[in-house]
Design brief:
58% helix; five-stranded parallel β-sheet; alpha/beta
Length: 346
């Protein structure tokens, strides 16, 4: 009897020790994510903003890690990237993130990685501005950072959500792809110029919002203080850093004057000086406002074509690409010589 009690006590104690060990780090999480989902399904769901994608990506220990705000996050097809380069891909997408936030994200991931990963920072002019509601936004970002590095947050919140509440829908990527393929076919059939002319003659709320935002924009000059951290990561080979501008809609880019480009151009120049790879801007002629339309049901567009009322004022998202835009941008990214050489693509 005493022997059974002793064995039970030993087993129970070992169980607690093992439980505390596994729940206090990401080792088991990495294995389970691989077995349950696989890298392509995880990659297909990385566009989710905030806690889920950031926490999963740190647990997932990817070879390639993308950081950015919601605008830059919308420009990637992570599933296509993962399949093409045959690597584990992770991402942390934070709405409203500043350049300083993205540098901190880069540091967090670089320091917590066992190997030397590739970290790709998606940039845009607005990341260098003093943000709206900056105090509240800062609190939200700090909370995301705290949860991101917390293994217990993964086990208590993130893992149950993606497993039991179907946050990772395996078929959603293919459904979106089919919808946008149908929409692309409709645009080709009807003529892309037709919808662009309709759009041009339909005032859009998002463009008005950006007109006001650009007029009030004030550069946060503290961004220069964070370049040293990035350069140190690159020099010490803790990670390989790549910086790239993510295209915005042509209508939005036309609103920028030269001064809006000064901070991002200055940062790019200094990054190059310390060995960080800065990709040349992607040819803007490859994009039109069609890649920033929010609606993707073909029936709606058929009704728009036959109506004399023009297009709805909320149909354009001036800075977030849709699925078609993400496909075009991702293909152009993967075709760049720097990326082909890095991942040995044909």
């Amino acid at each position: 009897m005493k022997k059974k009690i002793f064995l039970f006590f030993i087993t129970f104690t070992l169980g607690i020790i093992l439980g505390v060990y596994f729940f206090s780090n990401f080792k088991l999480a990495n294995l389970l994510l691989e077995r349950i989902f696989g890298k392509e399904t995880i990659a297909a769901n990385l566009t989710k903003e905030g806690n889920i994608s950031c926490n999963i990506s740190l647990a997932w220990a990817p070879d390639v890690f993308f950081v950015g705000d919601s605008h830059t996050g919308s420009g990637w097809d992570f599933k296509k990237i993962s399949k093409k380069i045959d690597r584990k891909v992770g991402a942390c997408i934070i709405g409203g993130a500043t350049f300083a936030d993205l540098v901190r994200l880069t540091k967090i991931f670089a320091i917590n990685s066992k190997s030397s990963p590739v970290i790709i920072i998606g940039g845009a002019p607005r990341q260098f501005w003093i943000g709206e509601n900056s105090h509240e936004r800062k609190k939200q970002v700090e909370e995301i950072f705290r949860r991101m590095i917390d293994p217990q947050n993964f086990w208590v919140h993130t893992f149950p959500r993606i497993v039991f509440f179907d946050s990772f829908k395996k078929g959603s990527y293919n459904r979106n792809k089919k919808l946008f393929q149908d929409l692309e076919n409709l645009f080709v059939l009807e003529g892309k110029d037709k919808i662009l002319n309709l759009l041009k003659n339909s005032p859009q709320n998002s463009l008005k919002k950006w007109e006001d935002r650009i007029e009030k924009a004030e550069v946060d000059n503290s961004y220069t203080n964070f370049l040293y951290d990035l350069c140190e990561i690159q020099r010490n080979r803790i990670a390989k850093i790549i910086f790239t501008y993510i295209p915005e809609s042509p209508s939005l880019q036309k609103m920028y004057s030269k001064k809006e480009w000064i901070p991002i151009n200055s940062v790019s120049k200094k990054m190059l000086e310390c060995g960080i790879t800065v990709l040349p801007k992607i040819n803007e002629k490859k994009f039109s406002d069609l890649e920033f339309l929010k609606y993707f049901e073909t029936q709606k567009y058929e009704n728009f074509f036959s109506s004399k009322n023009g297009l709805p004022q909320d149909i354009l998202d001036a800075d977030h690409m849709n699925f078609i835009g993400a496909q075009i941008h991702t293909d152009l990214f993967l075709s760049k010589p720097e990326i082909k050489n890095l991942f040995q693509l044909e």
